[in-house]
């Protein structure tokens, strides 16, 4: 294996010649880096950049974010998924604005206490914005080190994190931690990729354990996958006669927490008939006074894949309800309401 100085310098030299010109790199303030890192936690860069640009245009400062409503933030976030990230952004913005005078904390102990900020995000902010020697460990770092050193430790355990964190800190350029951390993440994103790694372009090829052992596809070692949970969602699209639609806010700490949805009946199987729907109606039974008007919008349930969950979704149209309804919204304003993407797509097609 190469010594620390040679390894680190080679990595930084590669980065200087190949890095992508991403918008948050043009002016690496703590606020910009924080927003970018949260967006990219579960999102590909190519998909995340437009969201980042829109988000910064809408909330240019941390004070703007703190003063915004949760609904405004979720509406901008719509389509990124993992909405708890956006809710935590709002909470952290409020804390920094009120308790730190709008100035980002510059110590690890302060950052790690903020909602939605873990070791990786804290290390990225401290190294990139404050020049502090904290090595980052994300999926790209895991993958690169696992292949380079031949580490067959399953990811996800505390022992694996400690091992890779120690390596990241060991190879860190303490004089340029910002360059080193961005370089190793960029290397994993562009060269040592998850699928079809570009080994022919790899400057570390000669010393890479996985390449020389012809075991690239065996690293990193992952924990066995959890079985996907299967759920059946029946959304009631209830339309009074006056151009309104009924929505409810999803309050459970579950998928889509904080977003709005049509009244929902969750069943233990796909419902085929109105009679089956009525038998499952529960608290939404009062909406179904005229059974003859209830119709399925999609004959076959639409499948939505989420992490460790698979949703089968059916929309039931209830065109008229002759009672006083709560939680109604003008149909023409639905574009301003934060909805899960599959509901937003339905709205665009149906209305």
Explain what you see:
Strands 1, 5, 6, 7 and 8 form a 5-stranded mixed sheet that branches. Helix 3 (30-39) packs antiparallel against helix 9 and helix 10 (139-149) packs across helix 12 (177-190). The chain is 42% helix and 12% strand. It has helices at residues 4-18, 23-26, 30-39, 45-58, 62-67, 70-77, 84-99, 108-111, 119-130, 139-149, 158-171, 177-190, 209-212, 274-279, 341-350; strands at 229-238, 244-246, 248-249, 260-261, 264-267, 295-296, 302-306, 309-318, 328-330. 31% of the residues are buried. The chain is of the alpha+beta class and 351 residues long. The longest helix has 16 residues, at 84-99.
What distance lies between the first and last C-alpha atoms, to the nearest angstrom? 62 Å
Radius of gyration: 24 Å
Number of strands: 9
Question: Helix tally?
Answer: 15
General shape: elongated
Regions with little confidence, pLDDT below 50 for 5+ residues: none
For this structure, the quaternary state is single chain
Order of helices and strands: HHHHHHHHHHHHHEEEEEHEEEEH
Main β-sheet: number of strands, strand sense, barrel status?
A: 5 strands, mixed
- What would the average pLDDT be, to the nearest integer? 92
Strand content: 5-15%
The assigned structural class equals alpha+beta
Give the helix level as a range of percent: 40-55%
């Amino acid at each position: 294996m190469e010594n620390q100085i040679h390894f680190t310098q080679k990595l930084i030299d590669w980065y200087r010649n190949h890095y992508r010109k991403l918008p948050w790199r043009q002016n690496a303030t703590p606020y910009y880096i924080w927003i970018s890192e949260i967006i990219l936690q579960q999102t590909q860069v190519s998909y995340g950049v437009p969201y980042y640009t829109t988000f910064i245009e809408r909330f240019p400062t941390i004070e703007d974010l703190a003063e915004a409503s949760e609904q405004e933030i979720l509406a901008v976030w719509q389509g990124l998924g993992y909405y708890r990230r956006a809710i935590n952004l709002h909470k952290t913005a409020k804390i920094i604005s009120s308790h730190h005078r709008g100035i980002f904390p510059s110590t690890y102990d302060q950052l790690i206490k903020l909602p939605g900020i873990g070791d990786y995000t804290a290390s990225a902010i401290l190294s990139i914005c404050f020049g502090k020697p904290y090595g980052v460990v994300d999926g790209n770092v895991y993958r690169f080190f696992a292949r380079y050193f031949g580490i067959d430790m399953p990811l996800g355990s505390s022992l694996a994190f400690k091992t890779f964190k120690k390596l990241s800190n060991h190879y860190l350029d303490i004089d340029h931690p910002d360059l080193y951390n961005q370089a190793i993440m960029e290397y994993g994103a562009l060269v040592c990729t998850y699928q079809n790694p570009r080994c022919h372009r790899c400057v570390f090829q000669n010393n890479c354990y996985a390449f020389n052992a012809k075991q690239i596809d065996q690293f990193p070692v992952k924990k066995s996958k959890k079985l996907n949970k299967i759920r059946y969602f029946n959304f009631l699209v209830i339309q009074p006669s006056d151009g309104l639609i009924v929505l409810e806010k999803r309050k459970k700490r579950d998928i889509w927490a904080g977003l709005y949805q049509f009244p929902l009946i969750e069943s233990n199987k796909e419902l085929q008939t109105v009679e089956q729907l009525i038998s499952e109606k529960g608290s939404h039974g009062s909406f179904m006074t005229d059974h003859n008007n209830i119709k399925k919008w999609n004959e076959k349930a639409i499948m939505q894949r989420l992490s460790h969950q698979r949703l089968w979704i059916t929309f039931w149209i209830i065109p008229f309800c002759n009672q006083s309804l709560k939680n109604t919204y003008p149909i023409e304003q639905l574009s301003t309401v934060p909805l899960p993407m599959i509901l937003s797509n339905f709205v665009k097609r149906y209305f």
